[in-house]
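Quick one:
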Amino acid sequence: MTAVPPPVSPSRTTCASLLHELQIIWDEIGESDSERDTMLLQLEQECLDIYRKKVDMTRKYRADLNRSLADGRAQIAAIAYALGEASSFSRARGTLREQLSAVKPVLEELSLKKQERVKEFSVIMSQIAKISSQIAGDGVAGSAGEDARVDERDLSVKRLGELKSHLEELHEEKALRLQKVNSHVSIIHDLSVVMSIDFFTTLSEVHPSLTDQSAVHSKSISNDTLARLMALTNSLKQEKQQRLQKLQELGSKLIEVWNLMETPTEECNKFDHVTRLTTSSGDELLRHGCLSLDVIEQTEAELERLNVLKASKMKELVFKRQNELEEIYRGVHMDVNSDGARQILSSLIDSGDINLSDLLSSMDDQILKAKEQALSRKDILDKVEKYKFAFEEDKWLDEYEKDENRYSAGRGAHKNLKRAEKARILVGKIPSIIKSLTAKVKAWESEKGVPFLYDKVPLLHIVDEYNAQRQEREEEKRKSREQKRLQEQHATEQEALFGSRPSTKKPLGQSTNANTNLGTPINRHTGTPLGRHGVSAAKEHRESGRANMTPVNYVALPKDDSVSRKN
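Output:
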């Protein structure tokens, strides 16, 4: 608040006296009233400007005081809020200067308290950052405190307590991690001793601090170090187990070969440290270097030497079993890789990685299984042989009926005629043979759950291929007969129109339209995996000179084909 000015100020008295003196001077000069009014207005305007300027300066000063007072109060409130305390400053009464004087000590006190709290926060957060950096392994311990920046917006006691609790947790985690590191180091040391591995070199590859005996508390406890230690421990444990199993297997093989070859006890005692491992587990305390690579190499060399002596005795018996197995498979048209099997057997015997007694027993089991498989295929293979014979006869009959001189009185013609009669009967039974064979094969495949292979090819595929070829051949025969009928009909019509022509007499059995048949050429099909299939043509007998022979019923053949196609 501004003070009320006195009723009459010295300035006003001075201005009045000066104005009176100015009037006297004007009277003496003789200034006109208009000039006097102008000068008075100028004086009044100048005075107003001076007053206005002073008022503006005073207003600005008052605003600055208000701003400083508001800033002080805001800082007090902000610091009190950051410290988590209620503001103890109450709004003071009086002038602005009095209020500012009241704010200043409160602000200084709170600022000092804030600095102390910030320093306390900084110490705790530096320790947290340092341990966190050690755990994360992403920085140097010395520079960790520099990265710990205090958030001055929350300096409450509650927040400080949370940080202290977090720091305690980190100390506990650090101790636990250090304990884990020491435990892994101890296990790695024991495993290195058993397997004769350089302990310090192996451990330094994980982290150099792990091999520094003088820096117990500065060992790396980061996640990466723990992960590497755990991986190294697991790797060494697996390596130990693998070496133990390897030596146990080698020891068992040594005992087996010794028993087979009746090796003297004195020679066996040289590898007593190996055979003793066959009854030990991986958790038992093992001697220094008992699982070293040198021990494994020495044992392998000894076993290889003994296997060379043993192989010569067992190899002959093994290949005898293989010959027997191959003969069984070949007899029932099953796929057998003779060369590959013999190479595998030779490799197994030469390597010494297999128990030859077990190999012989396994081959006996294979022979027994092969005999059972051969027995299960016997019925089908019998029908296959019957089918093959019928197929060969069908092919022979087809070639026979294409021979224009088949009825000539040559040597063996009578036997061929009888064979042709039997072949026609057998060819007529082919659809039923195929139907029965297909049913047998499908029943076998349904029972076994695998396709029936005949020399590496599914038998049903062979049968389907033959049916397709047979239908094609019958269709060609039908077209040929139809063409012949049309030609004969055309010749008859020509004779009716122009009269008969003298014809040259043909030899017995020679076709009358040999030079006029424009039908489809004879199609000679290649054979399936069962053999070379020909096309059965079963043509009608010529009526010249063979009236006593029964012609083939061509109408019945497509019916047989339709039956075979349904099957």
